[in-house]
Amino acid sequence: MVQIFTLRERLAMLPGTVRRHAASTQARLSVIADARAVAPEIPRDAEAGHLERAARRLLRRAAQDEFAREGVTRVNLPEEAGRADLRRADVAGDASFHAFVEDVLSAVDIAPSLLERDDAVDLRAARGSSDAYGLSPEVASDLASYLLSRAFTLHEGTGAEADASDALEAYLAEQAALIRQDIREALVRQVRVPLELQVARERHERIEALGPGAGFLPDADGAGPADAEDSHFPQRARAAFEFAQNEAGRAAFGALRTGAAKAYERYGTPRNPPPPPR
Known about the structure:
Elements (H helix, E strand, L loop, with lengths): L1 H37 L9 H27 L8 H7 L5 H12 L10 H9 L11 H20 L8 H28 L1 H15 L19 H4 L1 H13 L1 H21 L11
């Protein structure tokens, strides 16, 4: 009798457990969707590590873009960019390079993010956030803070309490140290690897050759100014992505898929199929 009573208790607790698990799963998916709105390359079944790496990539790329934007003119670079030339020049030890690196690092401020999903999306798409080179380090830092705050939520669980602020600050400080080291290493590679330096120089020359204001044109591998219609394509693509993520979008695409399947069943096969081969 004791075993039967215990079994009944467990069965009575099962619906509540299922509901809590479903709520936790839904909250986790919501956090991942928030991150994917800023970094679509993050997988749908992402773990916290995916968001951390996306934040580091965002700032590493912003640092490389800043080198192409300003570094190639501020840093004392040798005329010849061969491997031996760069080794003899020791650009990474030059004072001008150190000053540039410190300027980039000063723009990196990893802190608890107050951005909501739509705010982060608007920030990334804003005209003042990027130019033909890419995102500014300041905007990349804000977006990285947004991603890392979501990563912390995945680490601690979506039901983390507000008193976890100290843990969040410690976590962000640890991630900020990793990001700063990553940026330093990426910038050192820019002046030690001939191909990376050549690419940065060519990007700078190509974009600056377009003339004043060209910095706000899309960097299309040497193409001219984009058409007005094309300039709105990222916004339309983002709107379509957002629609596909919400409940109404999933229902609409599901209806289209079901309708297409029924149409194929009705019209996609011949009315009088050929007889089977003998």
